[in-house]
Amino acid sequence: MRPIYLYVDKYGITRKVAIDLAYLFSHKQIRLPKWQFEEGLYLRYLPDGKNPSRVENYFLTKDKIIKEDKDFYYFNFPFNYNQVSEVAV
Predict the structure, then answer these.
(1) Helix H or strand E encompassing 44
(2) In Å, what is the CA distance from 30 to each residue of 18, 51, 53, 73?
(3) What's the CA gap between 76 and 79, in Å, rounded?
(4) Is residue 38 scored above 80 in pLDDT?
(5) CA-to-CA distance for 3 and 7, rounded, in angstroms?
(6) What are the residues facing 45 on neighbouring strands?
(7) Alpha helix segments (H runs only) across the chain
């Protein structure tokens, strides 16, 4: 199983933030610690599995938070694993 990353581009540098795969697979949601959230976080995915050269970005914004607790934000994961894992490197 290949890890999945969120990306953020700042100051000409792209940083990666790993997603908690155990939580993702059991709940079909992204659980992100609040201290890791920042504007511009996105997930790369393949909208069409037949065209692997077309990659799009799914931005995690405040309006996409479905719930939160003291330490985490939770986001829906509207993709299947293969759409994201192929471009997660």
Answers:
(1) strand 42-45
(2) 10, 25, 25, 8
(3) 9
(4) yes
(5) 13
(6) 56
(7) 21-27, 81-85
In angstroms, the CA 66 to CA 73 distance is: 8
pLDDT of 78 > 80? The answer is yes
The answer to whether the CB of 79 falls within 8 A of the CB of 48 is no
For residues 35 and 71, what is the distance between their CA atoms, to the nearest angstrom? 8
Three-state secondary structure call for residue 25? helix
Closest by Cα among 85, 87, 72 to 36:
72
pLDDT given for residue 37 in this prediction: 93
How confident is the prediction for the chain on average, in pLDDT? 88
Model confidence at 48, in pLDDT bands (50, 70, 90)? confident
Q: State the Cα–Cα distance between residues 23 and 44, nearest whole angstrom.
A: 19
CB distance 74 to 30 below 8 Å: yes
Single-letter residue type at 81: Y
